[in-house]
Specification:
Layout (H helix, E strand, L loop, with lengths): L2 E6 L5 E2 L5 E2 L13 H14 L6 E6 L17 H4 L9 H18 L1
Antiparallel strand pairs: 1-4, 2-3
Length: 110
């Protein structure tokens, strides 16, 4: 069995063939190449578009179906969850503002 290169970011997620970050559970959709320089070029292109990205080519073996043998990454989070939130966004102030403006419009129309 040979080796291939996949791309992994700073959160442990892998680049998919559709240029999206995934957790690696479905190995069929992962971006892969047999050439290290091609993987490095892809990392360079991605980093040019997103300066906060910290990605690197990862050499890994392939299984009997030629899919990369990678460990599952942690669960995917939204940016607000990653920043320290608990996965929910507090929209109460925004909802109150919308309710107040909706209520104000009704009284003006009477």
């Amino acid at each position: 069995m040979g080796t291939i290169f996949v791309i992994q970011n700073q959160y442990g997620h892998y680049l998919s063939k559709q240029s999206e970050w995934v957790d690696g559970r479905d190995k069929r959709i992962l971006y892969r190449t047999v050439h290290r320089d091609e993987a490095v070029n892809t990392v360079f292109e991605l980093s040019s578009k997103d300066v906060a990205l910290r990605a690197a080519p990862l050499e890994c073996e392939v299984d009997e179906n030629n899919h990369p043998k990678v460990e599952h990454a942690p669960a995917m989070f939204t940016p607000s969850e990653r920043a320290g939130g608990e996965g929910t966004v507090d929209n109460s102030a925004e909802e109150e503002t919308q309710a107040a403006s909706a209520g104000g419009n009704k009284s003006e129309n009477l």
